From TrEMBL:
<dbReference type="InterPro" id="IPR036388">
    <property type="entry name" value="WH-like_DNA-bd_sf"/>
</dbReference>
<dbReference type="InterPro" id="IPR027417">
    <property type="entry name" value="P-loop_NTPase"/>
</dbReference>
<dbReference type="GO" id="GO:0043531">
    <property type="term" value="F:ADP binding"/>
</dbReference>
<dbReference type="GO" id="GO:0005524">
    <property type="term" value="F:ATP binding"/>
</dbReference>
<dbReference type="GO" id="GO:0042742">
    <property type="term" value="P:defense response to bacterium"/>
</dbReference>
<keyword id="KW-0677">Repeat</keyword>
<protein>
    <submittedName>
        <fullName>Disease resistance protein SUMM2-like</fullName>
    </submittedName>
</protein>
<dbReference type="GO" id="GO:0009626">
    <property type="term" value="P:plant-type hypersensitive response"/>
</dbReference>
<feature type="domain" description="NB-ARC">
    <location>
        <begin position="33"/>
        <end position="203"/>
    </location>
</feature>
<keyword id="KW-0547">Nucleotide-binding</keyword>
<dbReference type="GO" id="GO:0002758">
    <property type="term" value="P:innate immune response-activating signaling pathway"/>
</dbReference>
<dbReference type="Pfam" id="PF00931">
    <property type="entry name" value="NB-ARC"/>
</dbReference>
<dbReference type="InterPro" id="IPR042197">
    <property type="entry name" value="Apaf_helical"/>
</dbReference>
<dbReference type="InterPro" id="IPR050905">
    <property type="entry name" value="Plant_NBS-LRR"/>
</dbReference>
<keyword id="KW-0611">Plant defense</keyword>
<keyword id="KW-0067">ATP-binding</keyword>
<dbReference type="InterPro" id="IPR002182">
    <property type="entry name" value="NB-ARC"/>
</dbReference>
Length: 366
């Protein structure tokens, strides 16, 4: 007699999915803006919030903290679905639709109309990162406008919570999206900038020598008090134990801070380039620049990246393919240690990615 297998019911997708973030998060500014956003989420008169500021200032970090703060029990503030998406400069709307469908538990090829019908009577929060221009949410992605309420709910005198939060570099995008509230993410103050820099640059080394501490403060000042620059330059200096090495970095930063540079973003590129120049050798520099071949905001499969490096001759002179891959993973570890290349997961090397500003800097160098 055969026993029939009991079918297990598929579990519905989680309302909120945690997004891995750096273990080091800027304190005061992130916390103040997070409290402000949560206030807007609780306000029935605020449906759309635009978070704006220059590249590298911490907008994505704030958006990820908003997402993660809504995890577990009553923390989700009543939202049945919280979906985080990266839009980017050249948005791939079909792929974004598939991501939305997956998060909602819908078939992967669901049409925009299916997404709209599913969401229109649900309480949802959509988090859109890195928007470069206004997006027609229903037309492009099937997302009901935050102010939309179906007639059946109006007849019952009830109201759904439809909210959208997006990040952008341009205040104009906030206006074109008709955001109810805008939050400008400002650069750090001196105290927070110094605290963040020390965390990435190895505070023990900085405090070990009075000359290094003095030089470290000057290097920090050249980072434009931007979290991304502080993280990258700090990471580049995390194993530098001699004052001469700090002098060398400071000279590089001063030399690159030329008056002919126009625009804050190019000034940031000049600052970040010092970390690139500080890489151990030309092979590592070329390996880094190759990462910019992938589209913006891509998750880069490490196997594909290493095979690419092998294919163009950046990894050679090894007895077998296993040794070549060992070398490739070592190169990835070195790039991650300098904060130029990010791991998708804090504990795995399966996928890596470039911050969009770091990628822009790599293209600027090329």
């Amino acid at each position: 007699m055969m026993l029939s297998k009991k079918k297990t019911k598929a579990q519905p997708p989680k309302a909120v999915r945690e997004i891995p973030t750096s273990s080091i998060v800027v304190g005061k500014i992130i916390k103040l803006n997070l409290e402000k956003v949560r206030g807007y989420l609780a306000d029935d008169n605020v449906s759309m919030v635009g978070i704006w500021g220059m590249g590298g200032v911490g907008k994505t970090t704030l958006l990820n903290e908003i997402n993660n703060s809504l995890q577990g029990g009553d923390a989700n503030m009543g939202f049945k679905h919280v979906i985080s998406l990266v839009v980017s400069k050249g948005p791939q709307f079909e792929q974004l639709q598939k991501e939305i469908s997956k998060r909602l538990g819908l078939p992967p090829n669901s049409a925009k109309s299916d997404i709209f019908e599913f969401l229109k009577n649900k309480d949802f929060l959509i988090l859109l990162d890195d928007m470069w221009k206004a997006v027609d949410l229903p037309e492009a992605l099937g997302i009901p406008l935050p102010h939309y309420q179906s007639q059946s709910w109006k007849d019952r005198g009830q109201r759904c919570k439809h909210k959208v939060i997006f990040t952008t570099r341009e205040d104009d995008v906030c206006a074109h999206m008709k955001a109810d509230k805008g939050i400008k993410v400002e650069c750090l103050d001196g105290e927070e900038a110094w605290h963040l820099f020390k965390q990435h640059a190895n505070e023990e080394i900085i405090n070990s020598n009075a000359s290094i501490k003095k030089l470290a403060m000057k290097v920090m000042e050249k980072c434009l008090v931007l979290p991304l620059a502080l993280k990258v330059i700090g990471g580049a200096m995390s194993n530098k134990k001699k004052p001469e090495e700090w002098h060398d970095m400071l000279r590089s930063l001063v030399k690159l801070d030329i008056k002919t540079v126009t625009g804050i973003e190019e000034s940031l590129f000049c600052t970040l380039k010092s970390s690139y120049d500080n890489l151990a050798d030309d092979t590592l520099r070329q390996c880094f620049l190759c990462c910019a071949q992938w589209p913006e905001d891509s998750s880069i499969r490490t196997v594909d990246l290493i095979e690419y490096w092998i294919g163009i001759g950046l990894i050679d002179d090894f007895k077998n393919i296993g040794e070549s891959f060992d070398k490739g993973y070592n190169l990835i570890g070195n790039l991650n240690a300098t904060c130029l290349l990010e791991l998708e997961s804090r504990f795995h090397y399966d996928y890596v990615k470039l911050h969009d500003v770091i990628r822009d800097m790599a293209l600027w160098i090329v």
